[in-house]
Amino acid sequence: MRPGPTNSLTDVAGIRVGHATRREPGWLTGSTVVLAPDAGAVGGVDVRGAGPGTRETDLLDPRNLVDRVNAVLLGGGSAFGLAAADGVMQSLYAAGLGWPVGGPGQVVPIVPGAILFDLGRGGGFANTPSAAEGAAAYRAAHGGAVEQGSVGAATGASSGGLKGGIGSASVVLPNGTTVAAVVAVNSAGSPVDPHTGALYAVRWGVEGEFDAVGEPSMQDLEAARNRAAAQRPGGPGMATTIGLIATDATLTKAQCQKVAGLGHDGMARAINPVHTLFDGDTLFALATGDRPAPDLMELFVLMQAAGDCVTRAIGHGLLAAESVDCTASGGVALRSWRDAFPSAVPSVR
After folding, report:
1. What is the pLDDT of residue 348?
2. pLDDT at 225 (0 to 100)
C-alpha cells in the first residue's frame, strides 16, 4: 500500500477541506469543514468518548432515512462551537445543495458535526467559533493538500500536555480504492511513550513517511519529565479528539458506521489512555461512491486501512503542531512535541 498524492484527506476525489483559524489576542480556536461532492456522500459516525459534543449524529444511524451528507463540521469552542455549523448550512443552502424536501431550491443541507474543548486557552473564555467561522471555513475549502498543525479545529488543541494539532493521511489500496483520514488531536491521554518520548503513531507509517523522525535523546526525555513534574496539579482537563475518514468506495450507511468504529482502533494505537471521561472522541465516515462496492475481503482491508490512516493522521498532527504562548492574554502556554524533543526531529525542523 502507498499514500495518495498528497497523503491527506483530499486524495479522495471530490472531498474538500477548509479551515477558519482565530489566533488574535484572547483567541485560540477555530473550525474545520469537510465538504462532500455536490451530490453528497453516504455517512456514518461512531462516538466513543464519555463527554461528546455533536450534532446530527442520530441522523446517521443506519435505521434512519437521510443517507447523504453535504458537509461535516469539526470545531473548537466546546458546545458553543457547534454554532459554526449554521454558517456551513447557510453557505450550502445558498449554493442550492442539500436534502430535497420540495420544489426547486427547497433543500435542507445536512451538516453533522463534533467539537472539542479549548475554552479559555487563548485567554477569552467566551471567544468561540460562530456561524461566521463556519462560513469562512466553507469558503476556504479546496481540494489541495490539507493544511495541518495548529489550524482550524485544532488551533487551541492540547494532547497529553503538549500542543495538539490537526493531521491527515491517506492510502491507496491494492484494488485502487483510496482511504484517508483527518483528525484534530485534543486528547486527555498522551500521544507519547513515557519510556522513550517517541510518538506512538510513528511506528505505523507507510513507505518511510516517518523515517525522518527518531527517538528523543535521554537528555530531552529527562527535561520533559522535569517540566511535567514542575507543573502545578489542577482539575481534570477537558479534551476530545475528533475526525473523519473518507473513501471513494461505494458503502452503505451501516458500513460507514463500521468504518468509523474501526477508526477508533487507530486512535487507541496513537493515544493512551483514550475514550476517557474527559474526552468526547468522535469519528465520522464518508463514502463518495466513485468506485464499486467492495467484496467482503476488500471491505476487510478497507476497514483495516481506515484505522491505520487515523493513527498516521494523529502522528502528522502532532508533528505539524506549533508551540503557543497565550499567557500574556490570560491563556495557556503549550509546547509542541518537536520543541519538547528537538533531538528526535533534526531534519524535520
Report:
1. 45
2. 87
Query: Which ranges in the chain belong to alpha helices (H)?
Result: 84-94, 131-140, 218-230, 253-270, 296-320, 337-340
Long-range contacts of 87-91 (CB under 8 A, 24+ apart): 87/130, 87/131, 87/132, 87/133, 87/134, 87/135, 87/136, 87/137, 87/138, 88/33, 88/134, 88/135, 88/137, 88/138, 89/134, 90/131, 90/135, 91/134, 91/135, 91/138, 91/139
Low-confidence spans in the chain with pLDDT less than 70? 230-237, 347-349
Task: Read off the C-alpha cell for 88.
Answer: 456551513
DSSP 299: H
User: How far, in Å, CA of 70 to CA of 93, rounded?
Assistant: 10
String of b and e for 59-86 (b: at least 16 CB within 10 Å)? bbeeeeeebbbbbbbbbbbbebbbbbbb
| pLDDT for residue 236 | 56
Residue pointed to by grid coordinates 526531529: 345
**In this predicted model, what pLDDT tens digit does every residue of 152-205 receive, in sequence order?**
999 999 999 999 999 999 999 999 999 999 999 999 999 999 999 999 999 999
Whether 262 and 306 have beta carbons less than 8 Å apart is answered as yes
Burial of 207 (0-12, 13-18, 19+ CB in 10 A): exposed
Rounded Cα distance between 57 and 82, Å, is 13
